[in-house]
Amino acid sequence: MAELHDLTALEQGALVRRGEVSPRELVDHYLERADRLDSVGAFVTLTPDLARARADALGAPDGSPLFGVPTAIKDLNLTAGVRTTFGSAAFADFVPDVSDGVTLALEAAGTVSLGKTNTPEFGSPCYTEPDVAPPAVTPWDRTRTAGGSSGGAAAAVAAGLVPLAQGSDGGGSIRIPASCCGLVGLKPTRGRISGRPTYGDPVGLATAGTIARSVRDAAAMLDALAGRGVGDPAWAPPPSESFLAACDREPGRLRVARFGTPVITDTTVDPACVRAWEDASRLLESLGHEVVDVEVPLPREAVATFETCWAVLTALAVVPPEREHLLRPLTRWLSARGRAVSGPDFGLAIGALRRYAAGALEALAPYDAVLTPTLASPPLPVGAMRDDDDPEADFEAQKAFTPWTSAWNVTGMPAVSLPLHWTGDGLPVGVMLAARPAEEELLLSLSAQVEAAAPWADRRPPGW
Domain with 12 in it: what CATH number? Predict the structure, then answer.
């Protein structure tokens, strides 16, 4: 007989609507698991009393398919009355008095947060090893990274501590941990999810998104998160139906571009990642799609421009001077790089990045989707990339691990990592699909078709 945590988030929501289980029962079930089984560094802060009180106060189910379903909020997102550290010892005791749009949207959908998920300092690295919590590790091998920056969210979902979770992605921070943890990680189109009330990314690289065990669960959470805020500077057009409904539509015969050459740095790609990408190509062809080899759509010169913007964004995290010594060396190094960029040079970098994005979008316009590996290797050992003595080497190691993901942050295209491959020793390897801007419906339709043809639902990590 299936346990509650064996069910998808949508199946759990259906039980709540039918009165077969209460939100409080779900919350208690997952809190017990989080208390007993969080050997993966999933949570920075658990809020059991708040979660139980919210579950008890929900009332009768509404039309939300996720009503009463437990989840968790990334520790970068403001949550009123709940400690929010941004992964930094400099904010170890910070408690905001407001919630951001992501938190409010999930509450409006009837979900219940169990607490704050682990993230690296300010969400900058692609591994989750903060000074305020243990490292987030993949439950498939607890000596290896869960990725970052949404590493805690992915670890929580993969270990069955919540059925799905929200993440954020400025250079791959949803798709990287999804690949490391054997999950679906969806970064939506730029402007699909409101950045209110802080609007902290003037470049447009970052967005919230979803991490789940199934494509349909990821789509349902996107439905909850998506929508325009009144003050948003830009937004994506609404879908024709729900994103969840798109999962039940046939995508038709698509033209899929593919490239396996790393975008941002020369690096050796692990054979397992190449095999996953090749197998995915053959799977797409077997489903009737045309798969076409293309050149890398972004020039290597775009990398330095991206790094300029990334460094400035890191420098925008204002820390009280008396607490700056608590920042990690990587954060201090990136912030120093960012502060050295003049205002005009930053403006020129944003303009150049947008021109590079336009060129890539023009090159890829004839294709319905794009296929690449997600990462250059399976999940690495904890500490393999972190180098506090040499932050520049740390940064280069991160680039070598993630040579494709940031391309779709530059272009603003929606992208998803799908858990289509496992190594011989049981490590998950993701494969990434992207689509034209605002075409999440097509991307989800294709992803659901792929999941049906090569299902992964029966895979469970040790300790499940």
Answer: 3.90.1300.10
CA distance 197 to 18: 36
Which residues belong to the active site? 74, 149, 173
Q: Which domain holds residue 239?
A: 4-453
Q: How far apart, in Å, are the Cα atoms of 378 and each of 120, 212, 276, 338, 458?
A: 20, 19, 11, 31, 20
184-187 and 428-435 as β-strands: parallel, antiparallel, unpaired?
unpaired
Percent of the chain exceeding pLDDT 70 equals 100
| Whether the predicted pLDDT of 2 surpasses 90 | no
Bridge partners, 272 (sequence order): none
Q: Taken in order 303, 306, 312, 318, is the CA torsion positive or negative?
A: negative
Please give the average per-residue pLDDT across 141-168, as a whole number. Answer: 98
Q: Name the domain count of the chain.
A: 1
Residue among 232, 234, 182, 171 nearest 205 (CA): 171
Q: Please indicate, yes or no, if residue 265 is contained in any of the structural domains.
A: yes
Judge contact between 356 and 410, C-beta under 8 A: yes
**Within a domain: residue 344?**
yes
**In-domain check, residue 57:** yes
Using left for φ > 0, alpha for ψ between -120 and 50, and beta otherwise, residue 438 falls in left
208 token code pair: 């919230």
Indicate the DSSP class of residue 126.
Answer: S
Which ranges of 365-427 would DSSP assign to H, the alpha helix? Answer: 391-401, 407-411
